[in-house]
Prior knowledge:
Layout: E1 8-21, E2 44-53, E3 56-62, E4 69-75, E5 82-84, E6 91-98, E7 101-109, H1 112-133, E8 181-182, E9 185-186
Amino acid sequence: MEAVDEIxxxxxxxxxxxxxxxxxxxxxxGHRANExxxxxxxxxxxxxxxxxxxxxxxxxxxxxxxxxxxAKSEYDTTRxxxxxxxxxxxxxxxxxxxxxxxxxxGMGFAERTDSFDFNVALQDYTKRYRASLDPASPxxxxxxxxPTGPKKDYSLKEGQTFSISIPGRSKATAGNxxxxxxxxxxxxxxxxxxxxxxxxxxxxxRKRGN
Length: 210
């Protein structure tokens, strides 16, 4: 009987990514892109596609013109091959395995929106794959490719109040600031734990800003 070709689904395409040779990971520390040397001089530059076949998916690093395969990384939802770095949302570490040999490469996106879409594509695939194995399992778990931190409790405690001043009303009293107050402490509108802005990989088509 003639073999039936597997149906391929393209989950994601990045027109341009940069690949870096990275140093060995220090004990009990995460990867940092600023330790990879000159980010404007990648080891390789090309296209990235995430391709799904039946019950598996893989990351394909390909020449953007010829389609020649540079590297391939099988994506295992129980053992993700993608890890976010600690100092940027545009750079990742990817585990590549070939004939039992394993290596780690750095990967960078020129645009932050590309890295976001990449992460969402992997997260969506993980949810669908787990749901296919166990329909009753929860599918709202956080993405394994983004750094996580302790959740902050912004709820009001017993005895605490929150008030604002409305333009045009009578002069605000002490404690009725525009930002409001929580238990006598001013509340700010900006969040913490911001991600450092490392320079993006250089583009071969046009210059992009940070």
